[in-house]
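Handout for the seminar on molecular recognition.
Each group receives one record of this type.
Step one: identify the two inputs.
Step two: read the structure output and locate the region that could contact 2-acetamido-2-deoxy-beta-D-glucopyranose.
Step three: write two sentences on what you found, then compare them with the reference statements printed after the record.
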Amino acid sequence: MYSWIEVLLYLTILELEGSDLDTSYSIRLPALKTLLLDRVGFKQNDGMFKFVLGCPSLEKLMVLNLVHQLRLQSTSLKFIQLGYRANIEPIQIEAINLESLILNGFIFENSNLSACKAIKNLSIVLAEYNFEDPSSLEDLISYFPHLENLTLDCDELTLENIKISNQQLRSLDLENCGYYSETDYRMVNVTVLAPKLTSFCYKGNISLTIVVESSDLLNGELVILDRPKKYDANWFTRMMNFL
Ligand SMILES: *[C@@H]1O[C@H](CO)[C@@H](O)[C@H](O)[C@H]1NC(C)=O
Ligand SMILES: *[C@@H]1O[C@H](CO)[C@@H](O)[C@H](O)[C@H]1NC(C)=O
Ligand SMILES: *[C@@H]1O[C@H](CO)[C@@H](O)[C@H](O)[C@H]1NC(C)=O
Ligand SMILES: *[C@@H]1O[C@H](CO)[C@@H](O)[C@H](O)[C@H]1NC(C)=O
Ligand SMILES: *[C@@H]1O[C@H](CO)[C@@H](O)[C@H](O)[C@H]1NC(C)=O
């Protein structure tokens, strides 16, 4: 007897929404290249792991509203996007050809991305409840030997000091770091150590100071988007400190 999924030999794109998958059947989707799972649960703990193992051509994986701990092993995956819903869990990804990783709300502790050495694009949205010690984030960023583009969205999380250090990094996008309102603002100090950096972009309020050390940034671009309600003296001072 075959399960419905076993006959889908030629499927290249699969999108599943709001279902519960039973992976006690063997899963074999040899042609699948793109998989999108939104609010999908698995009846078995290792369900996702088995599912991905059964997709040897999979290049692009998007998992939205993930509820499980995620463990993956794949040599074909090039792009992974993960978005967690409520209870954030660590992730273990072993994907040696992965080039782009987008993480939205994710826990660093007990996560293991050490096999993903080929990552060139990394995008992280931080979340308050999973973030205590910035050193785990700093270690992660400095680890990837081929990282070119980094996007870090602090999601208004009040980090105090953060050091972004990577030898290969060319482009850095920071978003929503620091916090600013009419009555209160908290400074964030960002130190960037990236000798090959040529592009830096900041989106958000200017409640941070940035020190960029030893880079080619003078040849690059600097984009600052700031939309304060009032352009007062304080704002101006912060702007000058920022530049
Ligand atoms: C992380 O994963 C790699 C394999 O991808 C493994 O060799 C290593 O032992 C793991 N590290 C930890 C701390 O579990
Ligand atoms: C990094 O970003 C730039 C601009 O967004 C893009 O042109 C370039 O291809 C990216 N690098 C990689 C490895 O994707
Ligand atoms: C990396 O991200 C940039 C935009 O930030 C995009 O243009 C590029 O295609 C991405 N590269 C890969 C390999 O996904
Ligand atoms: C950030 O740097 C400013 C100026 O150098 C300093 O006054 C402030 O205390 C620093 N903030 C933190 C959280 O270390
Ligand atoms: C930026 O400032 C506006 C108004 O002053 C405020 O509503 C918003 O929450 C601030 N954003 C951040 C990231 O601090």
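Reference statements: Helices lie at 47-53, 134-143, 233-242. The longest helix spans residues 134-143.
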